[in-house]
């Protein structure tokens, strides 16, 4: 610091925490506390959740067989409920390694759903109240953008 320069102060955003008790603060990811939904850490658990019967739906997510960008205005929030997460609460920085044993690519509708690999290791699972279809959602953070992405869950593609 030179001369009469005052030290800078910065505002702290405590909105990233929700107070559960005086001695305990719980971290919040997005708008949902991490422990408010079950963590699914096995392909069997995800299959069991996603095998619930569902019906055809005409929502904006029908074109999301592979990963698609879905902005907040296209996301049918009035019908979607977060029911689980694939984010391991014990892993601070999940891998960005992808799993494509059959040569598929990230955006492919035939790409495997591999829980320990990107982007599934950063996903939440949502269910539509209209058709009971399950949808995976995560947020891609780039250098200058935030991109919400969604993919309908196909149980045939869940990898072991």
Low-confidence stretches: 8-33
Give the rounded overall mean pLDDT: 81
- Percent of residues in beta strands? 25-35%
Shape: globular
Number of strands: 8
Helix content: under 10%
Provide the spatial order of strands within the biggest beta sheet.
Answer: 4-8-7-6-5
Please tally the helical runs, counting DSSP H or I stretches of 4 or more residues. Answer: 1
What is the domain total for the residues? 1
Give the structural class.
mainly beta
Largest sheet: 5 strands, antiparallel
Strand-and-helix sequence, N→C?
EEEHEEEEE
Euclidean distance between termini CA atoms:
57 Å
Rg for CA atoms: 19 Å
Notes on the structure:
By secondary structure, this protein is mainly beta. It has one domain. It is built from one helix and eight strands. The N and C termini lie far apart (57 Å).
